[in-house]
Amino acid sequence: MINIILPVDFGEKTDQLVDGAVKFAKEVNGRICLIHVAPTDIGFAIGDMGYQYFPEVEENEIREELVLLNKINQRILAQNVECEHILKQGIAKDIILEYSDLKNASYIVMGSHGRSGIYDVFVGSLTKGLTKSSKIPVLVLPIHE
């Protein structure tokens, strides 16, 4: 079976991305390996005392993101597509490429739009970075308003 890496960011266009990836997985008889990469600085804040780390903030955010990831996983499984999921923290490009190697993936599926605003700049650079560094095809699905 073909493994398809599907990074998600939980933005407003995630449902469109998942729908496109499910359609693609069905066409190629693939399994979706769903991944969310959380930043490593979730629990940090800048205040009067400089940088401060709040582990409870990080734990709560990770817990909430894992719930969202589980919901997407269940949605994919309900459409008769095999799916597994993982949440990791780190540098998104590196983590996604490592995961694609680990899963011996055939494709990475990305959306053309991420969350919104400044986040699009990073998503665009993530997609660009993946297409430059990946040993496997990166399929960019058009996500429109």
From TrEMBL:
Give start-end of the signal peptide.
none
Gene3D superfamilies per UniProt: HUPs (3.40.50.620)
Entries under Pfam families matching the protein: Usp
Q: Which residues form the UspA domain?
A: 3-142
The Swiss-Prot or TrEMBL record describes its family as follows: Belongs to the universal stress protein A family.
Q: What is this protein called?
A: Universal stress protein
Query: Can you name the source organism?
Result: Chryseobacterium terrae
